Amino acid sequence: MQKIVITGGAGFIGSHVVRRFVKNYPDYTIINLDKLTYAGNLANLKDIEHLPNYRFVKGDIVDSKFLIDFFVEEQPTAIIHLAAESHVDRSITNPHDFVMTNVLGTVNLLNVARINWEGRADNPRFYHISTDEVYGSLGKDGMFTETTSYDPHSPYSASKASSDHFVRAYHDTYGMNTVISNCSNNYGSFHFPEKLIPLAINNIKQNKPVPVYGKGENVRDWLWVEDHARAIDLIFHKAKAGTTYNIGGHNEWKNIDLIRLLCSILDKKLGRAEGESAKLITFVTDRAGHDLRYAIDATKLKNELGWMPSITFEEGLEKTVDWYLANEEWLTDVTSGHYQQYYNEQYANR
Ligand code: NAD
Ligand code: TYD
């Protein structure tokens, strides 16, 4: 009988992981531990919140006193750790929040797990979800493998790199049953519209300028979020302790090409003339320290655990656009209030 704590389960990827585990493993108890920052939204889990094997607990992983009591009370048998500050632009304006949650929060979780699980014969699993951004930036060629040296450039990626090092240190020093996966950029439903794809869909829909940083030459490797959740399920159940897996879609896109594709999809869906939405594309000042290219080599995951992306990018993007058009209320809710202030601060002077 597993009792799994999933941290950050009210966020974008976390909500897909929670949904998958709650639905696929009715005999597991899934506890979603989330602080509900601006990025956490319980509406992401409306369809499964009534299920008997799901519970939500509001809590902050930076608060070690809370975590100690929570562990004593719940006695979890595993952790899947996704809670994080996740947006590079926010990390540039406020790096401190990233150190607190991503570094200190992760160390707090590791500590409380180590103390509670010490000496247990079954050695419970601590699965840390990380990003390809820890590897830094690629030039035109090459891909990140699990042995690529860490070379983070943004406060976000530096904080994630630091947390990855702590997770490995807790395996090597205390023998904890840790696993890490480093995934490329995700896209799909429930993605907060501060990130490129949902921000562009929202702006195109509203006939607002679509900000493209620099010349739009930066390349990202996009993976459908449900394929990431499926990889997490496999790795959680099958990976050996102390291992790392890269997860990616073999799906590299220059930002400008991706935005043009989105414009064209939305022209059709919104009944606009071809080329109408592309007029919204607006080149703005580049992001400081902007990594040029990310690309993941997911061969290890394929060879060892048989994972491959299940859908093409064209299919996934179409599904994603349809979801945003059908879920107007969700989009309106998350873009009201503080979002406007955030948006004005990020984009007013670019
Ligand atoms: P997100 O910003 O959508 O969600 C983060 C969640 O963590 C939110 O629900 C938030 O409320 C919660 N949270 C933040 N601080 C917390 C704290 N102190 N205590 C408890 N909960 C807290 O992020 P996401 O895009 O879903 O990313 C999830 C994880 O996956 C992160 O660790 C991120 O680094 C990693 N990742 C993301 C991507 C991507 O493309 N989005 C790619 C690879 C890896
Ligand atoms: P983002 O979704 O923030 O993910 P990450 O920075 O973690 O890869 O950005 C994806 C790419 O899109 C990145 O190269 C920055 C760029 N970008 C824009 O050009 N305009 C935007 O408004 C945003 C949010 C991002």
What does it look like?
With about 350 residues, the protein is an alpha/beta fold. The protein has a single domain, classed as NAD(P)-binding Rossmann-like Domain (Rossmann fold). The chain has helices at about 10-25, 65-75, 90-95, 95-115, 155-175, 195-205, 225-240, 255-270, 300-305, 315-325, 330-335, 340-345, and strands at about 5, 30-35, 55-60, 80, 125-130, 175-185, 185, 210-215, 220-225, 245, 250-255, 280-285. Helix 4 (about 95-115) runs parallel beside helix 5. The chain is globular and about 65 Å long. About 45% of the residues are buried. The mean pLDDT is about 95. Bound molecules: nicotinamide-adenine-dinucleotide and thymidine-5'-diphosphate.
Give the arrangement of secondary structure elements.
Blueprint: E1 3-7, H1 12-24, E2 29-34, E3 54-58, H2 64-74, E4 78-81, H3 88-93, H4 95-117, E5 125-131, H5 155-174, E6 177-183, E7 185-187, H6 196-205, E8 210-213, E9 219-224, H7 225-238, E10 243-247, E11 252-254, H8 255-269, E12 281-284, H9 299-305, H10 313-326, H11 328-334, H12 338-347
Parallel strand pairs: 1-2, 1-4, 2-3, 4-5, 5-6, 6-10, 7-9, 8-12
Antiparallel strand pairs: 9-11
Helix pairs in contact: 1-7, 2-4, 4-5, 6-8, 8-10
The structure holds nicotinamide-adenine-dinucleotide (NAD) and thymidine-5'-diphosphate.
Nicotinamide-adenine-dinucleotide (NAD) binds next to helix 1, helix 4, strand 5 and strand 7.
